Structures are given as C-alpha cells and as structure tokens.
Amino acid sequence: MEQAIQQILMAFQEFVQAENWTTSQEIVASHPELLTDAAVAIIQQLIEQQDNQDFIRIVTEHYQLLSRCREVGIEQAFAEKTGRNRGGMSNELGAILQQITQLNTIPEMPQKVALCQQALGLVQRSENAELWAALQVELGNSLAQNPLGDRADNLEQAIAAYSAALEVRTREAMPVQWASTQNNLAAAYSDRIRGDRADNWATSIANNSDGQKP
To answer: What is the pLDDT of residues 27-51, one digit of tens each?
Structure first.
C-alpha cells in the first residue's frame, strides 16, 4: 500500500513539474495510476494539508485536469485545456464544448442539456467516438439533474445516454471511463421512476458492482 502511494506521489510530482502540457499529457498516459480513486484521495489530502496559496492553486489546476481526464478521456481533456482543434473540430463545436464545461449548477442544467444535444448534432460517432461518448455522459448527467421537465422522462433519457456511451466506453478500451459511466448508470436506475422498482434496484446494484470491479 505504501509503495502504491509513493508511486502516485512521484507520478503526480512529475506531472506538475512538466515543462509543457504536451509533456504533461504523455506523463498521464504513461501513469494510469493518476486516474484512480486512490490518486484522487491522495491529491485532495495534499491540497487540504497546505497553506501555501501558490502551491494550492497549481495542484488544484492539475487535479482538475486529471478529474477531466477521468470524465472524458486524456486526449479530449488536454484538447480542452490547451484549446487544440482536434480532428478538424469546427469553431462552433469548440465554443459549445467550452460553454458546457462552464455550466455546473442545478439551475444551469436545462441549458447544459440543450448544449449537449447541440454538440452531439455536430459530432459523428464514426469520426470521433471518444468525444461522442463523453458528450453522451455529459448529457446523461445533465438530464439526471435537470430541475425542469418530467422527472421520469429525464431519467429515461439519461439512462439511454449512459447506455449509448457504454457502447464506446468499454471495459477493455477505456476501463476508467467505463467504470465511472457504469456508476452513473447505476445511480440513474436507482432513481428511476418507471418500470418495476425491484428490477430497477437490481439493475442499479449490478451496474454499481460492475463499476467497482478492478
């Protein structure tokens, strides 16, 4: 256990001290331990134990980037961070993605739902499967928290979005993103209004269990 903690700390130090974001991306790609729940806990503890505001700012910035990597994948997270235009991404799509990342409060969820749907209309799964799946997850998350509209309808659409994302985010291809999406799907089934309550709970437990498997 101690060795694993030291490995995470050394990798995170290398990540923070990288000369540029390109090197940072290479470090994250070569150190998957930085994207684990253990790394999240360790970095959060680092931040809590510090009084130096510059240190906190730098570590928090890198922590947020790692969190984004967990959500949408390494390539997409760094593309957002650096403003790179990936795969001929249109300026319109880039602007929408930027807006999506800035909407995080419950009252903003209806707007976020609309933006995710708009972005999905500009992204072809066959051309950019990773981004397409990330947008499906963002859509699912936004629908699950949407204070407007019919709650049952919102949850059904959220379940459909998560399920679509899992067609791309397979356990073999994207294990970290697969696990987090499984957990999101489990939460949606737990809250589901339609269908048999016992069946919904069973599905929720099964998905949550899958998401926590190594």
So the answer is: 999 999 999 999 999 999 988 888 8
Decide: 96 and 115 in contact? Cβ < 8 Å: yes
| Of residues 181, 187, 153, the one with CA closest to residue 167 | 181
CA 36 to centroid of chain Cα atoms: 12
Count: domains in the chain: 2
150 φ/ψ angles, rounded to the nearest 5 degrees: -75, 125
Nearest Cα residue to 155 out of 185, 114, 197: 185
Phi, psi torsion values for 30, nearest 5 degrees: -90, -5
Tokens representing 122 are 């500009």
- Give the model's pLDDT for residue 42: 92
Question: Residues 55, 152: one domain?
Answer: no
SS3 52: coil
Residues 187 and 207 occupy one common structural domain: yes
Q: Which of 168, 170, 98 is nearest to 128 (CA)?
A: 168
117 and 200 part of one domain: yes
Same domain, 13 and 68: yes
